[in-house]
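Internal tracking record. Fields below are filled automatically when a chain is submitted to the structure queue. Please do not edit lines marked as system-generated. If the sequence contains nonstandard residues, flag them in the REMARKS field before resubmitting.
Queue: standard
Priority: normal
Entity type: single polypeptide chain
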Amino acid sequence: MKRRPEPELMDGEAQALAYAEADFNASNTLFIELLRRLAPGPLAGATALDLGCGPADIVIRFLRAYPGATCDALDGSRPMLELARQALDAQPEIAARVRLLHDVIPSDQLARGQYDLVISNSLLHHLPDPAVLWRTVRETAKPGAPVLIMDLMRPASPGWVEALVESYVADESEILRTDFRNSLYAAFEPAEVSAQLAAAGLDSLEVAVVSDRHLAVMGHLPA
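SYSTEM-GENERATED OUTPUT FOLLOWS
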């Protein structure tokens, strides 16, 4: 099935709120489990980078799991970052370890070669040019840094898309159902992501199918 791109940013307030209020517990829990499999160690004193942080649920989960770490969290949507700020304000001990950044990649706000870990969830399928993500990973992470990028993967047929919509967001708002459907059409297939990594010189990272709708890019950058 041919890819059908969608807008890069979720800039509408209603759209951002529908996303923030949706139940992504299963996929966000999976994200942290995959990170543990990378065995990054305690990350004491480490600074992570979260690209496309959205309403910050992944950031909060990450910082709970790794209490010695801090995180720069970047997103291009102001409504998303406002929701992230609200979520962090309710947890001041977590908020003190987060720096929210409003920008899109490539971003001059990101330090070159300084991040101990780079993570991202559900950003890749929004990008008109996916190569910008892989360049950002290479440019911002320290040598040998662990990397975890999770995203939706494109189903093989429209029927499969509708089956996933029915399985996972049937009881959600129409806004979220539409966004999920569009995101599935905009997502990449695992082979496409593997080709992107090869073109970016990131052969040390591996692509894995991690659920019936998600793929993950995992591994460490060359030391």
